[in-house]
Specification:
Keywords: ATP-binding, Hydrolase, Nucleotide-binding, Transport. This protein is 43% helix and 16% strand. It is of the alpha+beta class.
Length: 67
């Protein structure tokens, strides 16, 4: 998938693999219960999420042992 993305192919990927998404995405959309919570570049979403629920989710999936 990374090779396809680097070749310029447009893809829509639904995943809970946030490290993968951070590496390959040029745009991230965070959804909960079928609604968009926020969207933006991986840099913004992963480093400065605007929605508390996004921050909570990222902490749980990226740093699960920090709790």
């Amino acid at each position: 998938m990374r090779d396809l993305a680097e070749s310029g192919m447009t893809m829509i990927i639904v995943t809970h693999e946030m490290r993968f998404a951070a590496r390959v995405a040029d745009r991230v959309i965070v959804m909960e219960q079928g609604r968009i919570l926020e969207q933006g570049s991986p840099e913004v979403i992963f480093n400065a999420p605007q929605h508390a629920r996004t921050a909570e989710f990222l902490r749980a999936v990226i740093h699960p042992d920090d709790d």
